[in-house]
Specification:
127 residues; 0% strand; SecE_sf; translocation; transmembrane; cell membrane
């Protein structure tokens, strides 16, 4: 039987593995050049080289099995995000204020507890 016919659609091929390796090298090189600028290049050049390398590395991954699976996953995630019922601006503002008030109250309570414990320790230690 033909070996290509036996491979399942989701199998990783040798070409995919080579693409993974080259892609990883491109992305790592992009991060190193964009972050550390080992060659002392002019100001925007390391960033541009880093971005181009990262984009090339990711683009190289897209036609692989892993890339197709990741693309499918991201597509499904976008589909699910469309179903989310997002809070209104008024609800968001109200909940933000509630969180801020609770944080202030808890901060005051922790401060009071700290003050009482430190006062008690001073009494116990005689300072």
């Amino acid at each position: 039987m033909n070996s290509k016919a036996e491979q399942s659609a989701g199998a990783t091929t040798g070409a995919d593995i080579a693409k993974y390796a080259v892609s990883a090298l491109l992305i790592i090189a992009a991060i190193v050049i964009g972050t550390f600028d080992p060659f002392g290049l002019a100001a925007p050049l390391p960033t541009v080289i880093g971005l181009v390398g990262a984009i090339a590395g990711v683009a190289l991954l897209l036609p692989t099995t892993l890339g197709r699976r990741a693309s499918g996953y991201l597509g499904e995630a976008r589909f699910e995000l469309r179903k989310v019922v997002w809070p209104t601006r008024q609800e968001t503002t109200r909940m933000t204020l509630v969180v801020a008030v609770v944080v202030v109250i808890l901060t005051i309570l922790v401060g009071i507890i700290d003050f009482l414990i430190s006062g008690g320790m001073r009494l116990l230690l005689g300072n």
